[in-house]
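Troubleshooting entry. Yesterday's outputs looked truncated, so today I'm pasting the complete records for two proteins to confirm everything comes through intact. If either block looks cut off, that's the bug. Protein one:
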Amino acid sequence: MKRIIFTDKAPAPIGPYNQAVLVGNILYTSGQIAIDPQTNELILSDIETETKQVMENMKAVLEAADMKFEDVVKTSIFISDMNNFAKINTVYAKYFNEELAPARETVEVACLPKNVNVEISMIAIK
């Protein structure tokens, strides 16, 4: 049985999808971009700040499902410019214990929603 996860501490969906879906003990999150949930404005001042906002949004979604980054088993990172990989990775790494970090792919894409530079989705198991 699936349960829809929603929190006002992360951006509301901008289309026909949910922030996350919990099936049993597995959480599937939608991709998060750098929208400040309090102002509904994009945070694009620099790639580090943008990535931090994405990760904070993801943290809020995980917490709404009573999970944390330690429960994440798979991450997908979509970036508009692979030259930003190192900066994104530095911010991303602050949220995980490297020894227990999830599996991950990082893919450069032609365009992301609202022309952001990074979008991240996760799968977590508790």
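Protein two, checking that the full record survives here as well:
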Amino acid sequence: MTLAEHEWMNEVRALVGKEYGRVYAWDKINAPMIRQWCEVMGVDATRYTAEGAVIAPPAMLQVWCMEGPVANNYPPGSTTENPYEALKLLEAQGMASVVAVNSELTFGRDVREGERLYYTTRLDSISPEKTTALGTGYFVTLVMAFFSEQPQGDEEVGQLLFRVFKFRPANPVKPATDKPAAPVAAKRPLPGISDDTRFFWDGARAGKLLIQRCKGCGELRHPPGPVCPSCHSFEWDTVEASGRGTVYSFVVMHYPEVPPFDHLNPIVLVELEEGTRLISQIVGIQPGEVRIGQAVQVEFNSFNDGELVLPQFRPVAAAAQGVAA
């Protein structure tokens, strides 16, 4: 039996197939950004230099046209259209919840140093109304087509398919009563623990920063894994790090605001004295004062009523003075 569709969906479905204007990249494809991306991702950047021509890693395709840390800060000439207007119309019908379903990148060819990219967005499809465990709503699929500007005519170099489920929750919030229940404090999510990572979290509970070490070649590695990427040995043990290091890189999370994390939320990539790097939060400092090269020291803090212990880092000066987080 096919259910009759809501009349208000006619306006939403009328948008299917609509193409939204160009969003340009701030910069042309360039070697410094490729090198930095490869360093952060732990990829050998030299593999993308062939016969003197710099080639961007395919997985960077979406990166070139991102707006940066300021939301909707796109280069001059970019469209001001909102490609998510179908989602806004669904929100107006009470389907305010959203969950990303899948994202698929496809590549037409490698992009090279000096090329300038842009993308356009097409509302590809909207599913029939679906009822899931999360609630009732619609799967909305958008396709971003990436182009390289060329004198002889712009060339499509790849696509990004992005699908979300826009829905009305199955268990909506109950209306307030005369005696509202006390709000439940949000807890930090617990890490996924496997046989490869259990030592790290056990060490944190004991106040130790343990790093995985290959028994074959002695290389330290983090995050932990079952096999050494250098010599492919499956044999490993651990070494207790000093906990001292420097800020190698950092980001400050502005959006979304996710309780119970602080807002703004500074996240650092710390290079330990032992040579390996790990991602953590930095505490005891204002987000705008974090600097690359800053000396930091690990400390172990408990959350969720002692259920979770996390290694976090504090600037050395602040640690010496006992400044509260």
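Both blocks look complete. Sanity check on protein two: The two ends are 59 Å apart (CA to CA).
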